[in-house]
Amino acid sequence: MHPISRRRFLQAGVAASASLKALALDNPKIYPLRWVYVSSGLHDDKELERVEGIARTASRHGLNGMLLSAGFDQMDLKPPEFLRRLTSLKKTCDNLKVEIIPLGFSVGYGSGILAHNRNLAAGLPVRGALFVASENEAHFVPDSPARLLNGGFEKQSGNLPEGFSVHGQSVSIDTAVFHSGKASVRFSDFSGASGETYLAQELRTTPYRCYRLRCWVKTEDVSPETRFHFWAMAPDGRDLSYLEHPLPATSDWSRVDWAFNSWYADRVSFRVGIADGKARNIWVDDVTVEEVGLINVLRRPGTPVVVRNEKTGEIYEEGRDYDHIADPQLNFRWDHDGPLIHLLPGGRIRAGDRLRVDYFHSLMIYRDQVPIDMSEPEVYEIWKRQIPLIDKYLKPRKYFLSMDEVRIGGFCKACKDRHLPMAEILGNCVKDQVEMVRAVNPQAELFVWSDMFDPNHNARKRYYLIDGSFEGTWKYLPRNLVIVCWYYEKRNLSLPFFSKLGYHTLAGAYYDADNLDNPKGWLQSLDRTPGAVGIMYTTWENKYKLLPAFGDLVSKR
Question: pTM of whole model > 0.90?
Answer without folding.
Answer: yes
